[in-house]
Amino acid sequence: MKADPAALLLRYRDQLAADWVRSLGRLAPALARRPADELLAAGRLILSEQIHALQRGEAREVRALAGHATLVGLLRDGDLGELLRALLALRDQTLDLLQEQVSEFPNLWRAARILVGAMDLLLVDLTVRHRRGQLPGSAVGPATSEDLAQVVGAEVRRALRFRRPVAVLLVATDAHEQTARVYGGAVEGSSLAALARILEQSTREVDHKIPTEDGGYLIVLPETDLVPAHSIAERIRLAAEAGEGADPALAHLTSTVSVGVATFPQHADSAPALLAAAQDALGQAQRLGGNTVVVSAEISAAEQPT
Predict the structure, then answer these.
(1) Which residues are within 8 A (CB) of 81 and not within 5 positions of it... i.e. 6 or more apart?
(2) CA pair distance 99, 152, nearest whole angstrom
(3) Within 13 Å and on the Cβ side, how many CA atoms surround 266?
(4) What is the rounded distance in angstroms from the CA atom of residue 46 to the CA atom of residue 302?
(5) How many CB atoms lie within 10 A of CB 57?
(6) The three-state (H, E, C) secondary structure of 40-92, written as one string
(7) What pLDDT sits at residue 303?
(8) pLDDT per residue as tens digits for the range 100-130
(9) Among candidates 87, 42, 73, 192, which has minimal Cα distance to 131?
């Protein structure tokens, strides 16, 4: 059937919110202990903003929910990892509904990208606020390896569903530990802030940009194959090398970056394999001395016997 995705979500909003709350016992047990009416209110709030994003045709304003009292309150009895997993589940449930109900809608993929972008902006802003100590329980820090696997897994499932490619970039600041040790936390923080600005300028709203525990970033690029993924990686590397986004007072300390690139299904047939391929590529870039982009396929070619 043909339908308007925004109208469809409005019609099923309360049902989706209730289904999401029922699923939390398995996904986020601590979060599930919150009063049901608070969880339903949070689900309806997020879905309402997704509906508005579809109506506006863009996702940017959804990130304001990261400071909304309804969502912030959910962290008092849970942790960031649980909340991120819960939000990813709500996003996937919403996309499943669209796929089932609007299979013939001509702009289904565009609607899906808006919804992915809207939720991902919210996830990134929650992570950043958490990292800066602006949310309850902020000592948890940046996304863990489990969180990264959740994000990559969700995108690979979506890529399979829509028969689209997805690319993963792992970006690491070269000599990150040495910079922190020699120049201190202020310079380290300035370097990471500059990298964050470069990533915002070099990628799309719908792309995941998630800080990792080692001071780098995981970037997941939906509907992106190797050629544009490599181009984006090179854009990031060149911008870092040129000192874009850096504090002028620290221009002489500009950090370069290493980037590992892998794509699904070209370099891997599963989410764990895709993440591992990107990690291997990043390791190779670092072994080559940094300030380098390495694609997973290049490692395989280099390791073949001559």
Answers:
(1) 140, 143, 144, 146, 147
(2) 20
(3) 20
(4) 47
(5) 11
(6) HHHHHHHHHHHHHHHHHCCCHHHHHHHHCHHHHHHCCCCCHHHHHHHHHHHHH
(7) 45
(8) 765 556 667 777 778 877 787 787 777 766 6
(9) 192
With the C-alpha atoms ordered 46, 15, 9, 92, is the resulting torsion angle positive or negative?
positive
Q: How far is CA 206 from CA 50, 51, 243, in A?
A: 13, 16, 25
Q: How many CB atoms lie within 10 A of CB 227?
A: 10
Quick one: which of 168, 148, 169 has its CA closest to 264?
168
Q: Rounded distance, CA 214 to CA 200, Å? A: 19
Amino acid letter at 115?
L
The model carries a pTM of 0.59
CA–CA separation, 130 and 125 (whole Å): 8
Rounded distance between C-alpha atoms, residue 176 and residue 247, angstroms? 17
Of the candidates 235, 300, 236, the residue with the CA atom closest to the CA atom of residue 268: 300
Peptide bond into 165 cis (omega under 30): no
Contact at 8 Å (CB) between 5 and 111?
yes
**Under 8 Å between Cβ of 274 and 239:** no
The mean pLDDT value of the chain amounts to 79
Kindly report the backbone phi and psi dihedral angles of residue 298, in degrees, each rounded to the nearest multiple of 5, phi listed first: -70, -30
